[in-house]
Amino acid sequence: MISKAQAKYVQSLHQKKYRQRHGAFLVEGGKSVLELLSSGVETETVFCTPEFADQNRAKLAPGPAPVLVSEAELAQVSTLATNTTALAVARRPPEAPLPPALPLGALVLALDEVRDPGNLGTLIRLADWYGLPGLVLSDTCADPWAPKTVAATMGSFARVRIWPRPLAEWLGALPAGTAIYGADLHGTNVHRVALAPAGVLVMGSESHGLTPAVAACLTQRLHIPRGPGGGAESLNVAISAAILLDNFFRGQ
Amino acid sequence: MISKAQAKYVQSLHQKKYRQRHGAFLVEGGKSVLELLSSGVETETVFCTPEFADQNRAKLAPGPAPVLVSEAELAQVSTLATNTTALAVARRPPEAPLPPALPLGALVLALDEVRDPGNLGTLIRLADWYGLPGLVLSDTCADPWAPKTVAATMGSFARVRIWPRPLAEWLGALPAGTAIYGADLHGTNVHRVALAPAGVLVMGSESHGLTPAVAACLTQRLHIPRGPGGGAESLNVAISAAILLDNFFRGQ
């Protein structure tokens, strides 16, 4: 059973302010909770149904002894309309160091005003797929520890490093010669240029593009060609990032 | 002002059963409503605030005279938590013919059990970007006319053709020699093969992959290489489709 104090604490973590205050975040749904327990991220508490505990005894073993709850209790404290298995409170990992000259020979993804948590989560998953060292986030991005972001990462939240930074300043302070790529309708056709995954790839908000101070830092603008007869004006930010990353990794 | 009967009708269209019965669907938010009015899709009714009507007089002119409503009235009938501008009821377009041998020399996207309306909408937008003739949907896909799908298409719902079909049967009846591509972890590296956009690209559900009967129809399996050191097990279905489509259109 979940105590009144526990329920209040879990519900407080729906809000960014309390996630920051407590240095904790929620991991919702059975699959994500098992990913959490197999990762190096510290787990405070696991709440799950007796059925889930029975079925996942070995996988739950590395974590704290689970608090057994009913589906109704889970639904009451979860942000999900249906969460019939498990929920965990995890400790926010300490920030890993980000060398001023970037991890050598690696590509870092930087996001400028990506405000949608679903898009941010999908981008974190994508960074994990390509083995990028991590993501630099402008302070106008969605919270990487919001429940919707964590859910959209499909477990990658535990593997990808996140560095919140004032983006234009951070880009401006990188060593001269660092390649800083960004998407731009008037940029070079990404199919006509050989790209190596080193430097920074900056992605902006879908509706407003890059903020001017960030756009001014780019050293190369890339353009994803639209198909012949294509009608859409633009692509979703995570979709664009995926296509660009695939082009960066073609030669690997 | 919105009448009681109008409110009841609009709210009924939140549900698939009534969208089918009435041959109608909802378009929510100002931007999407304006896309609707500039498309060839028939519009039954536009509900909008007086401010929105004032600001978009010319763009609203091709549609029926708008019913002016308050933000509170909009919120009451909308599926969106915040819709402060406009909502329209549109007529479902009649199905365009799909030749048994496919549109010659074009690539059709076929979706097998893509149940998430957000993913489906993003895939429709992607098909529009690449100028594909349309999408064939298995009957286990999300409803292409659901409000969440329509919103995720970002206006592409009005330009892309949709053909619901029993997928395995439809694929099985295509002329011999039609290329049928699908994503598969054990397929050919998509960077190591020259692809032309002709035939069918089949995408399955993220969690379960292609259903066996559909998988049996593939003539070529393609694999998106993961980055060195990458940790994620898989990619989102719309992300995978985007990367594959970019590879199909490299030579164009």
TrEMBL record, chains A, B:
Gene3D superfamilies: 3.30.1330.30, 3.40.1280.10. It comes from the Bacteria. This is RNA methyltransferase. GO terms for molecular function: RNA binding; RNA methyltransferase activity. Residues 6-85 form the MRM3-like substrate binding domain. Belongs to the class IV-like SAM-binding methyltransferase superfamily. RNA methyltransferase TrmH family. It comes from Hymenobacter nivis. Pfam families: MRM3-like_sub_bind (PF22435), SpoU_methylase (PF00588). PANTHER family: RRNA METHYLTRANSFERASE 3, RRNA METHYLTRANSFERASE 3, MITOCHONDRIAL. GO terms for biological process: methylation; RNA processing. Residues 107-245 form the tRNA/rRNA methyltransferase SpoU type domain. InterPro entries: Alpha/beta_knot_MTases, MRM3-like_sub_bind, Ribosomal_eL30-like_sf, rRNA_Methyltransferase, SpoU_MeTrfase, tRNA_m1G_MTases_N. SUPFAM superfamilies: alpha/beta knot, L30e-like. Keywords: Methyltransferase, Transferase.
